Amino acid sequence: MKTPFLVCLLLLDLSCAYNGVAQFDDQTSVQEKKYLIYDVNPGEGFNLRRDVYMRVANVVRQLREQGYNYILVLPPWGNLYHWRKRENKCKWSEFFDVESLNLFVPVMEFEDFIKEAGHQIDLVLYLQSYAEGWQDGEFEMKFDIRPCIEAQHYYEKVGDKWRGMFFSYSEVWSHDVKCLSIQGQSSTLVDAIKKGFNETYRLMVDRSETILHDHFGDIHYWRARRSMRYSKAVIEMGDKFRHEAFNSNDIDDRTVIKDNWQNTEKKHGDAIGGNYLCVHLRRRDFVRSHKKNIPSIEGAAKQISETAKRLKLNQLFLSTDADTVEIDELASFLSPSNITLTRFEGGPQLSDGFISVVDQWVCAHAKHFIGTHQSTFSFRIHEDREILGFLSETTFNRLCPDHENECEQPAKWTIVY
Fold it and tell me: Where would you tag: which of 204, 271, 378, 415 has the fewest CB atoms within 10 A of its CB?
């Protein structure tokens, strides 16, 4: 269904907590800098967007290695499907340590970009697939400026200015919009920018999820991922909750990591985790779209009970988007009845996004983790646990559908240093 242009602009403007200002070390003058802003499909969730960040960060890494002085502008978070409060214009510093991101490539918040470079964008480069699809069934790395297939539903020329959503900043506009049909990876987009757009001062790449990783799980993937440390506020709240709920701390759990991710390398088995089981139970739209691959509430409770008994754990941390009726139903099915179910409720002052990453931080420190099949929320926890040094068998697990006693477990994408 096409989204009406004016409806796209009528977004909520709710503030988010724990905002901060990005800083980066750059020796060049403002005039010599170039800015790469990016965005993704509005329907994409928080954790897929985290993956796209890594793809685009590696675009900027390659451009800088080849002498192009691009700064990566971080797109504000907001108005996401899973955020029931519909928060908007949230800075990255609410969720992530921006100074840590800067150790991989120079980054800045969108608001800081506006202060430094103004409200104008020189060009929006809208990425799209080829209208004719793949030729002869083969995937060829290529790109071409083509007529727009759907960009006109999201951008509109008003006078001499192109207007669009632009993260709900109504004063932001672009001088031009072009559509780039592209098949390829981060390096393919690098080639496209070098060939046709390297003189663009303020370049925005929309639908960045269109490009793939150059090599999923390689050293550059993991360097970008390791730089995505959570914000101090997330870690402090998550650690406080772990301590109060499970008597869990980094020293006893052997999950201490150095402040600088560049100096952190942990072997599998270094971490043992807190004395609790974490389960990520995905419901809501997964009940419709992945019904064959997820269990019923009773089926999930049975698997949780069996794992808790096997590991001799009686404390369960549940991370879920289930409603209260389903959570109560799950608790009633747990056996033995002495299994304590705990959740991080947060509070009305915390954004939905903030609560979700605290959940991930707590899950990352559990003795054992069980996720949901094909959930990017679970994928990010896998990565966190790899960084902390857990054994793979404690991390790459999933809940099986009711009709399968044993099901295929997640692929083990282990860390590379």
Answer: 415
Domain parsing of the chain, residue ranges: 5-224, 230-394
50 vs 29: which has the higher pLDDT: 50
Pick the CATH number of 230-394 from 3.40.50.11350, 3.40.50.720, 2.40.40.20, 1.20.81.30: 3.40.50.11350
Catalytic residue selected from 32, 44, 111, 408: 44
Contact 95, 19 (CB under 8 A): no
Euclidean distance between CA atoms 410 and 396, whole angstroms: 6
Q: Residue 224: its pLDDT value, please? A: 98
| Low-confidence winner among 133-137, 154-158, 298-302, 404-408 (lowest mean pLDDT) | 133-137
Confidence at residue 288, expressed as pLDDT on a 0 to 100 scale: 84
Q: What is the 3-state secondary structure (H, E, C) of the chain?
A: CCCCHHHHHCCCCCCCCCCCCCCCCCCCCHHHCEEEEECCCCCCCHHHHHHHHHHHHHHHHHHHHCCCCEEEEECCECCCCCCCCCCCCECHHHCECHHHHCCCCCEEEHHHHHHHHCCEECEEEEEECCCCCCCCCCCCCEEEECCCCCHHHCCEEECCEEECCHHHCCCCEECCEEEEEEECEHHHHHHHHHHHCCCCCEEEEECHHHCECCCCCCHHHHHHHHCCCECHHHHHHHHHHHHHHHCCCHHHHCCCCCCCHHHCCCCCCCCCCEEEEEEEECCCHHHHHCHHHCCCHHHHHHHHHHHHHHHCCCEEEEEECCCHHHHHHHHHHCCCCCCEEECCCCCCCCCHHHHHHHHHHHHHCEEEEEECCCCHHHHHHHHHHHHHCCCHHHCCCECCCCCCCCCCCCCCCCCCC
Fold equal for 5-224 and 230-394:
yes
Question: For this structure, is 44 an active site residue?
Answer: yes
**CATH for 5-224?**
3.40.50.11340
Please say if the pLDDT value at position 268 is more than 90: yes
